[in-house]
From TrEMBL:
SUPFAM superfamilies: RNI-like (SSF52047). The keyword Coiled coil applies. InterPro entries: LRR_dom_sf. This is F-box domain-containing protein. Keywords: Coiled coil. It comes from Favolaschia claudopus. Residues 12-39 form a coiled coil. Gene3D superfamilies: 1.20.1280.50, Ribonuclease Inhibitor (3.80.10.10).
C-alpha cells in the first residue's frame, strides 16, 4: 500500500508540473495575443474608417448604374436569372434595398420563355408592384397564366409585344382604355376568322404612335387609330389594304411594308396620297411583282432613307429612282437596293446626289 501511495504522489506531482508548464505557455500566448491586438489596433482603425468608393456613392447614382445594367427600355431584361433585376437584389443588403425601391428597374417584363416551376402570375404581379406607377412594357408569348395580372394594369401599358395568344385572351386584353400605350407589336394574329379579326379595335389609345403587325386578308381593316400613327410596320398587307391605310395615315414618319401581291396591280394605287412627313420608306414583297414600278405611286417630299427590292423599280431601275426623286422633290441620303442585279457603282454614277448607296445582290 505504501508503494502504491508513493507512485500516486509521483504521478500527481508530474501532472502538476505539466499543468504549471502549460499555464506558463498559456500566459505567454495571452501576452502575445494582447501584443498582436495592440499592434493591429491602429491599422484596423484606419481600415474601419475607409469606405469602398462604390459605397460612397449616393443611392440615386447607384440606381442610375443599375439601369445601365439592363437593356435599354423598352427592351425587357430576362425575367429571372443573370441580367435580370433580381440579380441586383442578391449582392448585398444595401443594393437589395436600392434595387427594390427603384421602380424603373421593374417596368419592362419578358414573358417569352416559359419556365416550369415558376409562378408567372405571381412574378408578374411582383414586377408590377415594384414598378409602382411607372408605365409598363412587356413582351409575351402566352397570356393564359398572366392575363389577369397584366390586364388589371391596362392603364399603365406603354409598349406591348405579343408573339401569340388565344383570340379570347387577345380580345380581353384590348377591351378597355389604354391611355399610356405608345407602341404595339403583334408578331402573329390569333387563329380566328377574318370577320372576327377586323372587330379588333384600339380606339382608346390616344398616345399610340407605333404599330407593327400583319393585316388580315379581309374586306375590312381592323379599327385602329391610323390617323395618329407616326411609325407603321405592316408584316403582311395587300396593295388595296395599303392604299386604304395610307389614306388614313397622313402623319407617318416611318413606313415599312411587306406586300402580298395579287395577280395585277390595283388601279387604286393612284389614290395613295402624298406623305409629307415620311422620312423613311422600306418596301418588300412575298411574290414576284413582275417588275412593276411600285415606287412611282408614292409622293414623299421629306424622304431621306429608301429601302426597296430592285424588282419593285420596274424595268429601268435607275430611271425609276430618278423619276421618283423628281416627282417627290426629295433629297435621299441613303438608298438600299435589295435583290439587285446592278452594282452600287452603277447607281452612284447615274444618281450622284445620293451620298450612300448599298446594293444587296441576289
Amino acid at each position: 500500500m505504501l508503494v502504491s501511495m508513493n507512485a500516486d504522489r509521483e504521478f500527481v506531482a508530474e501532472k502538476d508540473a505539466q499543468i504549471l508548464e502549460l499555464e506558463k505557455r498559456i500566459l505567454a500566448l495571452k501576452k502575445s495575443i494582447s501584443a498582436l491586438r495592440a499592434a493591429k489596433h491602429v491599422p484596423q482603425k484606419r481600415l474601419d474608417a475607409y469606405k469602398y468608393p462604390i459605397l460612397t456613392l449616393p443611392n440615386e447614382i447607384i440606381s442610375e448604374i443599375f439601369l445601365h445594367f439592363l437593356p435599354p427600355y423598352p427592351n425587357p431584361p430576362p425575367f429571372v436569372g443573370r441580367r435580370s433585376p433580381f440579380l441586383l437584389t442578391h449582392i448585398c443588403h444595401r443594393w437589395r434595398e436600392i434595387a427594390i425601391t427603384t421602380p424603373t428597374l421593374w417596368r419592362a417584363i419578358d414573358l417569352t420563355v416559359w419556365r416550369p416551376r415558376l409562378d408567372l402570375a405571381a412574378l408578374t404581379a411582383l414586377y408590377v408592384e415594384r414598378a409602382r406607377g411607372c408605365p409598363l412594357a412587356f413582351d409575351t408569348t402566352e397570356l393564359n397564366e398572366i392575363s389577369s395580372a397584366l390586364i388589371s394594369y391596362r392603364s399603365r401599358w406603354e409598349h406591348i409585344k405579343l408573339h401569340h395568344s388565344s383570340y379570347s385572351n387577345w380580345r380581353l386584353m384590348f377591351a378597355g382604355p389604354m391611355p399610356r400605350l405608345r407602341s404595339l407589336h403583334i408578331l402573329r394574329l390569333p387563329s380566328a376568322s377574318d370577320s372576327s379579326l377586323v372587330s379588333f379595335t384600339l380606339e382608346h389609345a390616344p398616345l399610340l404612335r407605333n404599330i407593327n403587325m400583319p393585316i388580315p386578308d379581309a374586306t375590312r381593316l381592323p379599327k385602329l387609330p391610323w390617323r395618329q400613327l407616326t411609325s407603321l410596320t405592316l408584316q403582311s398587307v395587300r396593295l388595296h389594304q395599303l392604299v386604304s391605310i395610307l389614306q388614313q395615315s397622313p402623319d407617318l414618319i416611318e413606313l415599312r411594308c411587306y406586300i402580298h401581291f395579287q395577280s395585277n396591280f390595283p388601279t387604286s394605287l393612284s389614290d395613295i396620297p402624298p406623305l409629307h412627313r415620311l422620312t423613311s420608306l422600306s418596301l418588300d414583297y412575298a411574290f414576284n411583282p413582275q417588275d412593276r414600278d411600285l415606287l412611282s405611286f408614292f409622293t414623299v417630299p421629306a424622304l431621306e432613307t429608301l429601302e426597296v427590292p430592285e424588282s419593285l423599280l420596274g424595268y429601268d431601275t435607275i430611271e425609276s429612282i430618278k423619276r421618283f426623286i423628281a416627282k417627290s422633290c426629295c433629297q435621299i441620303t441613303e438608298l438600299r437596293v435589295k435583290q439587285a442585279d446592278l452594282l452600287a457603282s452603277s447607281y452612284k454614277k447615274e444618281i450622284p446626289s445620293i451620298p450612300s448607296i448599298v446594293c444587296v445582290r441576289r
